[in-house]
Amino acid sequence: MKKTLSLLAGVVVMAAATQVSADAFEKRVSIGAVAGTTGFGGDVSWRFHQNLALTGRYTDGLDYDTDFDEDDITYDADFGMKASSLKVDYFPFGGRFFLSAGAMMPDIDANVTGTPNDGRSYELNGVDYSSAEIGSVVGTATLADGVQPYVGLGWRSSNAPGFGFFSEFGVVATNVDVSLRTTNGFENIDPALREDIRAEEASLKDDIDKLPVFPVAVVGISYTF
Q: What pTM was estimated for this model as a whole?
């Protein structure tokens, strides 16, 4: 959160250093409908200075299915995407192009189901367990949640009234977490199986955590008052 506040402070300082008079600029509000990598939704942007705007956004409703292999187990993951954000947009030239920094509250997680490639046994931390013994391996995988710093850039015609198109590209920090269990629940009474599942969680987390940021790309249509 300290990094986010520093980014916001830096943007405000840059705007304060410009020579454009805020009194000569007519403040405007834009309302937009958006679609992108975190879902579909809307935003509101207040262009209160020729070089500054404050934008809030919410997106939801996008699902993404994928699978990945780990130790002869294929994991199917059904990710749900949604996010809200509050950011400062800095227009260095007073026109459409802007740089953006702020806080995003992503909620990107998946229900995970593991299937052994041979159809009979799971290899967990190098130990084989039969599917008849433990049932299935299921759980959740979280890619990003909580409050995370966001930076980006884009184009928006919030300096003039009327309809317009806009786009934005950025990244939000991730905080990966994985939680697994067996459907038979034997790990609750078998410490060795419990430790092997914790090791499998750590291995999956390392695989997912190779990218420290999640790409955010949105396009939309807006009306500026």
A: 0.79
On average, the pLDDT of the chain sits at: 88
Any idea what the CATH number is for the domain that residue 192 is in? Answer: 2.40.160.170
- Closest by CA position to 218, among listed 173, 153, 174, 126: 153
Closest CA to 61 of 45, 83, 94: 83
CA distances from 196 to 76, 110, 112, 128 (A): 20, 21, 17, 10
CB 98 within 8 A of CB 81: no
Domain containing 39 equals 2-224
Helix, strand, coil share of the chain (percent; to 5): 20, 60, 25
- Token digits for 197? 């599942």
- What pLDDT was estimated at residue 56? 98
Give residue-wise pLDDT tens across range 11-33.
445 444 444 444 567 999 999 99
CA angle 86, 92, 97 (to 5 degrees): 70
Number of domains forming the structure of the chain:
1
Percent of the chain clearing pLDDT 70 (strictly above):
89
